[in-house]
Amino acid sequence: MPLDYEIAGLGDDAVDYLAAWDAQRHLHEAVVAGSRPDTVLLLEHPPVFTAGKRTDPHERPLDPGGADVIDVDRGGKITFHGPGQLVGYPIVRLPDHVKVVDYVRRVEEALIAVCADLGVTTARVPGRSGVWLRADDRGPERKIAAIGIRVSRGVTMHGFALNCDVDLGWYDRFVPCGIADAGVTSLSQELGRDVTVRDVLPSVREHLSAYLAWQPYDATPDYEPRPESARAPRIELVRPGA
Fold first, then answer.
1. What share of the chain has pLDDT > 70, as a percent?
2. Could you confirm whether 177 is annotated as catalytic?
3. How confident is the model at residue 111 (pLDDT cuts 50, 70, 90)?
4. How much is the mean pLDDT over the chain?
5. What is the 3-state secondary structure (H, E, C) of the chain?
6. Catalytic hit among 155, 177, 200, 204
7. CB-based contact 108:86 (threshold 8 Å)
8. Chain-centre distance of CA 114, in angstroms?
9. How far apart are CA 27 and CA 177, in angstroms?
10. What strands, in cross-sheet order, belong to the sheet with 48-51?
11. CA distances to 76, 150, 204 from 72, in Å
């Protein structure tokens, strides 16, 4: 059955994180009960930091710049959501033959394909979740999309965040995803032109629908493995999100 997509709020209609979390929970209950089809919520948030279960104290922002810092029930560490970042919450039932790690890889593969559509080459870094650019003369290895999920009663929650034209200055305030030895980037930063959330919506829908149809696929070759996390001292501001 095809995925349903719901544009929950973009731009001036960006959705408060706690309101979106509540909407996820209600939708999750409906999908579990079979009264709603698998659905992907697509939206933007006002600036907010969300801390997953494995967030260490030193990774939190000492100065969050007026944004809330919210503890959430997904896996992973702390990340940032804000204007210019497409957030997707797939609320989908995993088939019996699909393991959680396969689901995560499929979401990553969909976002790799979205970046490729725009001319940005990305891949996975084993040991670190999300979608990455390889280190080059423009900078170190850098994350362009973060992923953090929860699965309850066989149905997924939370999801991904793809940096389109987000203000990267927010990432100076904390240790994104607990990784202090890498950077964060956006499609606009890499391409040298504005790429908005609305620009990527058709590609995201196309590729997410394809990979979450649960058919076999050829995975993009990984970059070199890296340790999951590099510890950083607790300092006021740290240059590099899950």
1. 90
2. yes
3. very high
4. 90
5. CCCEEEEEECHHHCCCHHHHHHHHHHHHHHHHHCCCCCEEEEECCCCEEEECCCCCHHHCCCCCCCCEEEECCCCCCEEEECCCEEEEEEECECCCCCCHHHHHHHHHHHHHHHHHHCCCCCEEECCEEEEEECCECCECCEEEEEEEEEEECCEEEEEEEEECCCCHHHHHHCCHHHECCCEECCHHHHHCCCCCHHHHHHHHHHHHHHHCCCCCCCCCCCCCCCCCCECCCCCCCCCCCC
6. 177
7. no
8. 13
9. 26
10. 68-71, 48-51, 78-81
11. 10, 10, 25
Joined together, the tokens standing for residue 107 give: 């979401």
- Alpha-carbon gap, residue 207 to 203, rounded angstroms: 6
Residue 151's identity, in one-letter code, is V
Question: For residue 174, what pLDDT band results from cuts at 50, 70 and 90?
Answer: confident
Q: Is 159 left (phi over 0), alpha (psi -120 to 50) or beta?
A: left
**By C-alpha distance, which of 133, 152, 127, 147 is closest to 208?**
147
pLDDT digits (tens, 9 = 90+) for 217-229: 999 999 999 865 4
Instruction: Please state whether 119 falls in left (phi above 0), alpha (psi between -120 and 50) or beta.
Output: left
Is the distance from CB of 204 to CB of 114 less than 8 angstroms? Answer: yes
